[in-house]
Write a structure and sequence with these properties.
Layout lengths: L7 H6 L14 H18 L4 H8 L3 H9 L6 H11 L21 H20 L4
Helix pairs in contact: 2-4, 3-4
Length: 131
Amino acid sequence: MTRHCGDYRSSVLGLCQRGCHPGSGVDEKAFNAGIGRRVRDARLQVGLTQEHLARKTGLTRGSITNIESGAQAPPPYRLARIAAALSVEPADLLPSLEPQGHTSDLPADLADAVASVVSAAETMGARDGQG
């Protein structure tokens, strides 16, 4: 989420119409890699091979490989099909647009936990006049 602008476009695109933080957020390549990590983590958690996930979604194993590596970004419809096959919500496969710094090498669930702690600390600091 952006800090200064509360509208949907700003928070989703990481852009600020007023110039508070133009271009903030992650780049497209990092975002696609984040989707890939989340798809892979969810697939492994439910014990599916790439081939089995491909069959369940009507995609090729090569497409699953490309998605998991971040080389290919699935369109929304395919992402929804992948999520359904993995028994997760499509949003669970989308990374944050906020840069995660060194947490990018962590599994998605741990990176989310770190991001939650950082967000809570920032909120507490702002409340205490330190933000």
